[in-house]
Amino acid sequence: MAAKLSSRKRFPEGSVCKPCWELKYCPYGQLVEMFPFPDDSRDTTQVKRDYYTVMGEFTSGHLKTEEDVWDAIARLEFRVPWTTEEIRGYDASEVGCKVWGHACPVFFVQSGFTETKETRRQDRTVPRDIMLKVVRRDNHVCQKCLKYVPDNEVEFDHIIPYSKGGPTTVENIRLLCRSCNRKKGNDLEGLL
Length: 192
Known about the structure:
The chain has helices at residues 2-6, 18-23, 30-33, 44-60, 66-78, 81-87, 92-95, 105-108, 117-120, 128-138, 178-184, and strands spanning 155-158, 173-176. It has two domains: 12-119, no CATH class; 122-184, DNA Binding (I), subunit A. Helix 4 packs antiparallel against helix 5 (66-78). Strands 1-2 form a two-stranded antiparallel sheet. It is mostly helical.
């Protein structure tokens, strides 16, 4: 069994489930239970047969109550053949929820919205490469009072304040002199 698992692909490097990592609980709740177990031993034909059996309940008219319909939906979600096939290429310990045992929903919806180690390091501190790009773009001129700012007085300002969700990017950072930067604060009135 160990030899078989070692030949499988690993979960994408750097992927971290933000809720599990930061909140110490899974907010997906019942949704997790609708995903298959990563170590599901059923073969592909059995998974498809189970799926089409439940699908048949919808078309046959056997579902009489609302409760029957919701029960069938839950069983159907758990038996989706392409979901089961997708996770088979990964080590079960990499894909499975550590609490529930089912495949983690984050595994299927990884995108820019999924937290990674790199995005977790972002904060209000302006990285050196962004500082240099902003100084070149703004040409050592305060973007509020339009006065020249010497190197030792250059300050960087989040146009949309970091506390209001503004990113630390070249597009959201501007060069200000010390006095203009101290007056701004974190309000959005100047932008609105």
